[in-house]
UniProtKB/TrEMBL annotation:
Keywords of this entry: Acyltransferase, Bacterial microcompartment, Metal-binding, Transferase, Zinc
Name of the protein: Phosphate propanoyltransferase
Involved pathway(s): Polyol metabolism; 1,2-propanediol degradation
Single Gene Ontology MF annotation: acyltransferase activity, transferring groups other than amino-acyl groups
EC number: 2.3.1.222
Location in the cell: Bacterial microcompartment
Cofactors named for this entry: Zn(2+)
GO annotation, cellular component aspect: bacterial microcompartment
Entry's family note: Belongs to the PduL family.
Amino acid sequence: MDKELLQSTVSKVLDEMRQRPIPLGVSNRHIHLSAQDYEQLFPGHPISEKKALLQPGQYAAEQTVTLVGPKGQLKNVRLLGPLRSVSQVEISRTDARTLGIAAPLRMSGNLKGTPGIRLVSPFAELELPSGVIVAQRHIHMSPLDALILRVSHGDMVSVAIEGD
């Protein structure tokens, strides 16, 4: 196969791949816990998977907590796994008002200067000193999809959603 034909074929295949739909999911309020914080809240109880998420290796756990703020609380906030190195709580702006906290709009993991919150499980309570954010919208995708779509970590993209 000559070089021009190969380039043309690869270009056509990539163009077709760029047109295929990519599943999107919207996540509600949730919490990520460190192993240490998990053990304090759920002592002796292994984390158990309830449902796999669209992001490979990620899952919603059976375990939930109650978030308690100065003005209110949110019950049954789902733990997402696997466990992380640092605990973090992701809520909506409305949730922040309900709880009475000034959670900043941030990318996941950008926790410097964020407020804390009290976490309550069926077994224990934990005062998280920081880590509450309103998650900035973002898309998780595989490295292959990013390469095909010509996007890099942190790029801003536009999304078109077809529907009724």
